[in-house]
């Protein structure tokens, strides 16, 4: 497991589940089985048919929100 910031990547002994419990839920959201994202760095949100949502970040990276988390993600964005 690695934690990625704008400056660098850090190794971590935490699981994603542990990080979900530690991180501020107002700023961080688990979008799929591999990623927890920070809302401060979302550059664009692309929606497409079939409930697919892709997020574009700074620095340049694209991550998809899993279909089963799309509704929760949208609720989280507006809260």
TrEMBL record:
Residues covered by the HTH LytTR-type domain: 1-79
Domain of life from the UniProt record: Bacteria
A molecular-function term among this protein's GO annotations: phosphorelay response regulator activity
Record Gene3D superfamilies: LytTr DNA-binding domain (2.40.50.1020)
One Pfam family named in its UniProt record: LytTR
Coiled coil: none
PANTHER family, per the entry: TRANSCRIPTIONAL REGULATOR (PTHR37299:SF4), TRANSCRIPTIONAL REGULATOR-RELATED (PTHR37299)
Annotated protein name in UniProt: HTH LytTR-type domain-containing protein
Lineage: Bacteria, Pseudomonadati, Bacteroidota, Flavobacteriia, Flavobacteriales
